[in-house]
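Hey Z.,

So I finally got round to the geranylgeranyl diphosphate thing we talked about over coffee. Here's the setup:
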Amino acid sequence: MFDIVLASTQKKIQTVFEKISIKFDHRLSEPILYAVSGGKCIRAFLVSESARIYGVSEYQALRVGAAVEAIHAYSLIHDDLPCMDNDNFRRGKPTVHIKWDESVAVLIGDALQSLSFEILSEDKTSSDPSVRLALISSLSKAIGAKGMVYGQFLDMEAERQETLLDIDAVKELQNRKTGALIEWAALTGPLMAGVDNTPLKKYAQLLGLAFQIQDDILDVEGEIKMVGKRLRKDYLAGKATFVSCLGLSGAKKKAESLINQAVAELDTFDTSSDNLKALAQFVISREV
Ligand code: GRG
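And the result:
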């Protein structure tokens, strides 16, 4: 049911990428469009809803949504490389380095990262240069050496270590690897409107954590046809995850409790936050 709501954002984001990539050599636009399609677009949806609540135009929100999806796609392409997670299958199709080759995958990831910042830097995204700078600055922090890349680094390091991470270390790793970008997306509305983000911040943090717990649950319980990527890999590798730390039912309970708290955080809004509440429920009920 919620898939239908997300489908509308997916379509609009795809159109933004199609328009932007017209100016690229087709040997680049083809893998770029391949890499940005087929995902749920949860991060772009968070941007759209956050922007709508704070009165930011849909056009501007879709540009910021495309920027966050470009970063997300870059992280997945690089994460799938043989030197990282070494995956052949993503979003129900061959990963970029399988469909093309590793050099293309590295370069398309790089191009998507640059493209994201290019989109944010243009005045079509916001007529206010201080807003554009704030978007660029906060995104670079969320995905860099204190954010997503650090989370990925900790993850890679954990795989090489004998001792398993404890729950706090798993939380720390995941907050950076997955949570930081989700939080950034959720806070773009107040950022673009130039107002305080406190009411959404806690929601975003709780949602990010619940999202990762559900990802760990899907790794154990999911159906590969539904999820569209290799499963049981963390489980088979004996990696520390929320499921290994809390047990399957403990992880489910934790995710549910986080989502209940996240939804409660939205009580300061009127019905304008209903879609964010529905997204929160989707995050822990999703099979994909
Ligand atoms: C290699 C320098 C360098 C940087 C990349 C690879 C990386 C840094 C970070 C990894 C980030 C990563 C892969 C996080 C996993 C997050 C996750 C659970 C992704 C799946 O998100 P969904 O379910 O995917 O929203 P869809 O396909 O729906 O978009």
